[in-house]
């Protein structure tokens, strides 16, 4: 959760700052627009992850394309932010270099003025010593002023060199990498920024999806209803199937042989012995729901006899 919030907020902040630098003419509007787009990107990513299987193909494709485009915009803003940070250091370094070059050129010009004055004095012939001494006397204040200027220029050059050293400390690793691979420092910075851009915003989106998935799993584990199990006392005994008795007619041929398919009825029970009452005549109790008729009973008894009557 902490990693997701920190990476997402930093990616959004760098992107908003970089986009505002790219479009400096409308800074406030760009900041508001990019901030809302960053928030919408993370919301869409979480929504698409949770409802991927419930969305139709067109809506799902549009949301996916929108997230990719917003990620590219964020990457452009991060690229602008990092490149602007490097340009601030690089421009300072270049400014100090230009300043040192200008001071050195001015120093060379002052030295040329001093040399020119001395040369003009030396060209006066020795026979005109008075004029030569007078020219020397007149040139000494000018030469002293120029030498003072040379001293000031030298101090400025030293100060600029020290500032360049301080700036190089900030980009020292880049300078070392550039020297190691024998490439320009700008090329090294370009590829490093591309590496950061490739990792930063996609990682933020993946962390948002991972956090959404983890929160969904935690919510399901917290509010899930357990599957009810039957109580042992509530278990029912298996019910035996009821077989109904259906008598079959006796075949015409071979009356002495009992067919194998004929089902034997159970023996009749004495109702008087069991209940103590005299049932109706010719009544016999059978286990089937419907008692057979007298003709069926006579037929079944006829088939049970060993000897034909």
Number of strands: 0
Supply the number of helical segments.
8
Helix content: over 70%
Report Rg.
54 Å
Q: Main sheet?
A: none
Count of domain modules: 2
What's the rounded overall pLDDT mean? Answer: 75
CA(first)-CA(last) distance: 100 Å
How do the SSEs run, as a string of H and E? HHHHHHHH
Question: Which structural class best describes the helix and strand composition?
Answer: mainly alpha
| Overall form | rod-shaped
Q: How much strand content do the residues show?
A: under 5%
In terms of per-residue confidence, which ranges show pLDDT below 50 for 5 or more consecutive residues?
230-238, 253-263, 268-289
Describe this structure in words.
With 309 residues, the chain is mainly alpha-helical. The protein folds into 2 domains: 215 residues, no CATH class; 34 residues, no CATH class. 71% of the residues lie in helices and 0% in strands. It is built from 8 helices and no strands. The longest helix has 66 residues. The radius of gyration is 54 Å and the shape is rod-shaped. About 14% of the residues have low confidence.
